Amino acid sequence: FRDIEYCDDGETVMVGNKKGFVVHYAHDGTQLDKFGTNYDVVQMKMINGQCFVMSANGSYHVFDGQAKLVRKGKIHNDINASITTIGADASGEYLFAGSSEGFVFILNEQGEELYREKYHINISDTAAAEGSIYFTAISGEIYELSMMGVVLAGSMQLITLILSVCGYVLCLAAVILLCM
């Protein structure tokens, strides 16, 4: 298996595998449903009752809490980027993905690409909170992409936070001093 996410009901899990299947299991191991994505599942995220699944070819599937397909699509990947991560904002309206080559993609609910930019990082994971998207890099940095309301198509900025174990306290102290 590649990834596992608990469903909001607390009784079932969704599991993705290298063969491209997403399987819905009960706690007793009973298989409830099985869905083929046709490509290796690289990551899954459970966000507000929806399970976001990213496949190696850039296709994505979104399932509700009952493991029913809500939407699917594919990131327009004419650059052959190796998509490594998937995420969404709290409402599930905006889907975002990152690649090992440093590409960041943001799509709306209709699957339209709102943002694509290449940064010089190897993106390993994503998360969203309070109007920002956070990307972690293999090298240990954390990056914040501010969404500033719904101005996704326009002014997005990448802010490097570079938090390493040794410099963590110094970075926080510097941020606090700058904000005063």
Can you tell me about this structure?
The protein has 180 residues and is mainly beta. Mean pLDDT is 77; it is low at 149-180. The longest helix is centred in the last third of the chain and has 12 residues, at 168-179. The protein has a four-stranded antiparallel β-sheet, with no helix packed on it. A four-stranded antiparallel β-sheet has the order 5-6-7-8, with no helix packed on it. It has a four-stranded antiparallel β-sheet with strand order 9-10-11-12, with no helix packed on it. It has one helix and 16 strands. It has one helix at residues 168-179; strands spanning 3-6, 12-16, 21-26, 31-36, 41-47, 50-55, 59-63, 69-74, 83-88, 95-99, 103-107, 113-118, 123-129, 132-137, 142-146, 157-160.
Descriptors:
1 helix, disordered C terminus, 180 residues, mainly beta, 4-stranded antiparallel β-sheet
Percent of residues in beta strands? Answer: over 45%
Biggest β-sheet: strands ordered side by side in the sheet: 1-2-3-4
Q: Roughly what is the average pLDDT, rounded to an integer?
A: 77
- Poorly predicted ranges (pLDDT <50, ≥5 residues)? 149-180
Write the layout of secondary structure elements.
Layout: E1 3-6, E2 12-16, E3 21-26, E4 31-36, E5 41-47, E6 50-55, E7 59-63, E8 69-74, E9 83-88, E10 95-99, E11 103-107, E12 113-118, E13 123-129, E14 132-137, E15 142-146, E16 157-160, H1 168-179
Antiparallel strand pairs: 1-2, 2-3, 3-4, 5-6, 6-7, 7-8, 9-10, 10-11, 11-12, 13-14, 14-15, 15-16
